[in-house]
Fold this sequence. Notes:
By secondary structure, the protein is of the alpha/beta class.
Amino acid sequence: MATNDKYDRQLRLWGASGQRALGNTLVLLIGTSACGTETLKNLVLPGVGSILVVDDDDDPARWGTSASPPPPGPSPSRFPSPSSNFFLPPPPPSPFGGDRDDVDVDASRPTASTTTTPNSNAATACALLTELNPDVVGHHLSVPSLEGCDYDSLFANLARDGPPMSSSSSSSSSSSSSSSSSSSSSGTSAPPIRKVLVISADQPSTVLLPLSRACHARSLPLIVVRSYGLLGYVRIQAPMPYHPVIESRPSHRLPDLRLSRHPAFDGLRDVMSSSTDLECVVDTRDRSHAPFVIVLLQALERWRGKKRDDDDGVADDGSSTVVVGGRGHHPVTIAEKDEFRSIVRDMTRDSSREVNFVEALREAHLVWTDGRISDEVRDVLDRVDEESFLRAAMKSDMDVEGGSSSYVGPEIPSHVLHFQLLVLALKRFLVANDDYPPLEGTIPDMTSDTARYVALQEAYRRQAERDRSAIDECARFVLAECERRSDGCELRVGMPTDDEVRTFCKNSRYLRILETRPLFAEYALQDPASPVVASFASSAVGGEGNFDAIQSDVRDDLLVTTMEPHETDPMQTPMLWWIALRACDAFYDRHGHYPGKHDQDLALEADANEVYGCMVRIVGSMGLDESDIIVKYLLDRTKGMDMAREVVRYDEAEIHNIAAVVGGVASQEAVKLITGQYVPVNDTYVYNGIASTAGVYRF
């Protein structure tokens, strides 16, 4: 089956450019939990270029061949029950009596004891995941400990040498070789790596914070997935300085017809001048096949003429009412809009036959819709200036996006520099065009004869091409200015292609950026007394971005979200359970294990008491201790202890259906980050499986 046919459905979602971006991306998975492998599965199936699975070498499957019983105490495995993970075999029966963890082994699934050499979790998961799609190249790496891994060196090696072809662990070398050979036997060569996406699966802060810091330093996007009992969340750490979204694809996109702009662009004026006044047309067929754009423009001329007659062309302050701020006067007040609609109705002779007039009445709002850029786009433009762009563009090149071996502070990825170049060109274009962005150049379907529809279509297409050429010239001017001021330094950014400029122009009304704080900065605020967090206090990375502005908004945003609790049971509000999960992390930081590891009731109650204390401290650190819902359902000791006992009861358990839901959401957000299309969730998606509800919060 041809690749184009296999990916036909998803090409309708993100197009050929999105599929190319997906195929040129390496997804690095840290940890082989069920949530992590479910996330990776949903990226392997649509054809991500390559994957690298990294896990530690503490594999409980090896214990089946051990000469001595496993050591007492908590399991060294990060994930106590491999049976919840379809991409890892369940542990073999223990030679010391009973199945490990009392897991019922499915006879249809291979166990570790069925292989001659026990594979590492990373090798096993990689081999099974790549079986799903032969187009994907799989790599795996086993390290002695994820907590002791030097992630900065790992990313530097990826940038310099690409992903490793075998495991670094001698005990898993045979499995690594077989995995590599199976990848090459599929006939798929390793794709070029243009982007790296990191996914952390169910890792404690001792792993997560060093990983977060390394990703921040390298400007790599990081997705944190977590499945804990009946709860889970997906946290996005955007690369520095932000994640740009050109093709945001809003659910409701208004046609870009520029009917309110005065004077209209040349092509539209030509179409209008060649159109006969519909009031003078006798032929019903001719009238009923005039595009609604022509109907609206002729109605607008009548409305303007009526306003000139009524007001005599002069407003109360002596200014003209026909031209305001360089635009043709269009209906603004409710009365004026109703008056305009009445004119369209009066122009209609037989609504049952003149469908185009019905369409004109339905689309009348396009006459007073301002085509200028929105405040959201203005915020994006304000984040880019030529001085910062020049400083970033003169830094050293990166072979892999975000992967430089020596730098001071995070280096801006090349695709962000291209975005900034186009934004600077757009700012110059807006100055020369009264804040109107480039025309999209497409028109919606409408009732019309072929000749007039094609003429209208060509008018918009030609004007859009003129605007594209103008943006291209502006980009060349900005680039030439940067080259002149760079004193001979080679720039890291060149001219975008015609297709890139055309895509940017078409979507310039809906530009977005995603900007988040790194996790180590978030944790430092929420639990400053944590011994793990304290170790990062003196090792901050330069280029801290816009984090102060983000923090000033986070508390206000959270207070607003607390005003919208769960509709039937406010205690099931996802944010409350996220605080409980953060309290479990705080417990881990202090004890080296999660709460609920002991079977005695007194020990479990003691864990619950400590978790509740962590919840109270975190709420205070976040400044939410005056929120009504927090006071009523979390700071109230009886209700707060109920939540603490519930998360203690989970004992870090992974439930596959929860992991599948969280993994599905995480993979969806990963595709958004990879393709640069659609707007990712802003910060954190929290899933509450107790009540089957979810929420998105900025932490």
